[in-house]
Amino acid sequence: MKYAFTHILTLIFICTFCLSSCQKDFDMIPSTVYKGDMPKNVQLLDHTSKTLTIAWDFIPEATSYTVQILATPDDEMPLYTYTTTHEDYYEFSNLSSRTSYYARVRANFPYSSVSDWVYVKKDDQIGKMIPLYGLVNNNFEIPYIKIIDSSASTLTFEWSFTGFEDTDNETGDTYALQLFKDAEGKELFISWDEVSGLFAPSTASTSKPLRFTFSGLQPSKDYFLKVKNITKNMESSIRKVSTVNALAAAVSAPTKSGDIILSQDFSKFIHGGDIFHKAAGYTVSTAAGRAALKPASGANPVDEELGQGLCDLNTEFNVFDGGNVTRSYTEALGMGDWGKQGNTSTRPGYIKIGGSKGLAALYSPILSTLPGNSSITIKFKAGVYKEGEISSADNIFVQAVEGAKFSSKGAILNPNDVTILQSIAVNIVEAKDQFKEYTVTLNNVSKVARIAFSSDPTQISANKTRFLLDDIIMVIK
After folding, report:
1. How confident is the model at residue 351 (pLDDT cuts 50, 70, 90)?
2. What is the 3-state secondary structure (H, E, C) of 84-128?
3. Peptide bond before 371: cis, by omega within 30 degrees of 0?
4. 137 CB contacts (<8 Å, ≥6 apart)?
5. What is the DSSP letter of 276?
6. Contacts of 133 (CB under 8 A, 6+ apart)
7. I need a surface site. Which of 63, 238, 304, 474 has the fewest CB within 10 A?
8. Using an 8 Å Cβ cutoff, are 455 and 467 in contact?
9. Are the C-beta atoms of residues 246 and 221 closer than 8 Å to each other?
């Protein structure tokens, strides 16, 4: 019995030791010896609408690799995990096509050693991946909305379902564009529903993107934008967008340096396609509609009597004469005292000057408020007119002129009798795809003079006579 009792104690001791040892092995923390030996070139190798393929470079000492897909970068529990010993990539399949995922890889080494995790990155940040679109920016949403430009009276934006990649092939979808007065999207300002075809790829060397310019807006005002894809029954979140301040107005009796004698931001130009920003716009096709100068508002505002509707980026209307332009339309645009030579056409929030191999000029009103012969500083924004990638302007001229006479609509009657008192050439070649601001000073300008913005006559044969103009302001120097 004594022997048996001693034997039992020995067995209990051995079992206790073994249990202690086993528990210690179970809780063993992986070694950090290889912590810094992380896989390099961890990347999204390929994707489809349902798959993400993650790849990395081999490490000679590694025995295997663990690759994970996570719902957020900080998740402790991955959505999917796979460990591979022979491949330097892995394809995760049966994923949701428009769900965001994140991926990371680590190397595994002998004796339970592991490296730190390495994430797939984009621009040095942990990258968001969506199977249908691949690796996208972290602020990517579907559809993604990008504000292209804003003025005192216009908002131009672009939207995309592919992150603005060349693979965007969804331009055949139908959309609804909505602009609200409130962040909750309850007070509709204007909407265009079932917009399709207008944004399909054009026959030009570059396709027309999904862009639109809202015109006839109020300055310094917040609006709230939403885009719906009717075809796919999807919509964006509401995005706040704001117009900028209006130009300062001219003073009634300028007398000192800094006084404004004239300003024009073309904010009443609410019609025409936006060729500068490659965006569709709002149009009124009838003379009666243009004379009313009624901005579009409400849901899908197509008025047959006024001829309201949408137009592509190539549509434009002569400001002064031609077609069904009326004097009342020109005056409603705020151009009643201005004049022109050649083609001067309305675009949303700016003016286009010049035609194909045709010289043109825009003449300001007579500077009758000047206190006498004065030096004036003229600030303006200019843009190069382009069709596709072909530019149509290098230089323009800012001139002080006298003697110009115009018809009741504002078309010049005596171009050969105009006296050019001063002329300054301005090179605008850098103003491609965005307006640039320029400043010139003219001296000894009389109160019977006008300021003209003209094409370069030496460039007629080269077809570089078209340019865009905005935000003119003239002050006494």
Report:
1. very high
2. ECCCCEEEECCCCCCCCEEEEEEEEECCCEECCCEECEECCEECE
3. no
4. 122, 123, 128, 163
5. T
6. 47, 140, 161, 162, 163, 165
7. 304
8. yes
9. no
